[in-house]
Write a structure and sequence with these properties.
The protein is built from 17 helices and two strands. The protein is mainly α. The chain has a two-stranded antiparallel ribbon. It has one domain: Growth Hormone, Chain: A (Up-down Bundle), CATH 1.20.1250.20. Helix content is 74%, strand content 2%.
Length: 411
Amino acid sequence: MTAKPTQPSRGRLIGFLALMVLVGLNLRPALSSLSPLLNRIQADTGLSPLGIGALTTLPVLCLGLFAPLAPWLAKRLGPERALSLALLLLAGALLLRANSLTPLLFLGTLGVGAAIGIAGSLLPALVKRELPKGADLMTGVYTMALCLGGALGAGLGIPLADWLGDWHLSLASWTLLAVAALVAWRLGMPHPKPPAPGSLPKAPRVRLWRHGLAWQVTALMGSQSSLAYIVFGWLPVLLQRRGLSEGEAGWLLAGSVMVQLISALGAPWLARLHRDQRPAMLVVLGLTTAGFVMLLQAPLSQRWLGAILLGLGQGGAFSLALTMIVLRSGDSRLAGKLSGMAQGFGYTLAAMGPLVIGLLLQLGAGLTTVTAVLVGIAGFAAVFACLAGRNRRLEFDAEGTVITRRYERRR
């Protein structure tokens, strides 16, 4: 029988919360700081539009390819040391990426995606273990930190390049934040008491791919993440095609991501009031769709309203998708497995979004076509939101077999 999880002390909770915020701040600037600088990078390196598209797609693809390694690393190193390794890899890759040599630029970008994929997949299980009764709200706080980091990366990319005199230094500067998170995590990471030898039975093998609910959560994660990474990778470029300067396009992206802070924290709180998360998911996906249409099709005088709607929608969508991993898992072990699957397969699916947009632009597609593709992806996400948002959860039965059942949440 598994011991009943206990809530941490107030001091431990505050410390863990601070660490989650600091780690979360690191998982988006590496992505969002790149897109405002794409024109400068292209001019300096001579990359083709397709090459630039590959540069924005590669880290998202690596999120998916490397996220499944997280449960394997956690099992062998422990989740705490595995996260330390991911932060170390992130710091090194950020330095390597700040290079005009194309092979090193792409190698560093690959490392950035791998590090973020591993770290992002480890965190839901850590949150579920450290705060089992409030994991969904903790996920909202962590997602809020992700959004803040994304806003900082998007908004400071151009100013840092101008201030430091070089896009290389602008990209490399985010290494400092990664090193700070690594040091703080090593000093303050939780140290759970190991179980006594022989006190726990051998854990049964978990095969989540046999369960439709796991695939529904995965498809939801992938489709809404695809929209997010299209925004990080291409929104400034698309806005510049509408006649905005690179600086204003970057600030519009930063403003939209900053607005995500509101819905990233509020959406999980609203969702936990009900056992059915479908209405909340449909609302945030509707806001996302409206934001895209206003930014890319409406008069430019409405661009900031569009950015606000997009931010409210995407912040809520990502936060709820992560919360689904927690709510659809009966314990921290299942949360870790579902996180690896949802973020592994999901981010691999998400990588197709930036690639498709890059190909469309390479082929001369206009903003109307791009907008139609974005609306289609949002519709795809809505279908799986209706499936994953139902009152279901993956649990172990008395024989240790994973089953899907309805559950009652305690208020």
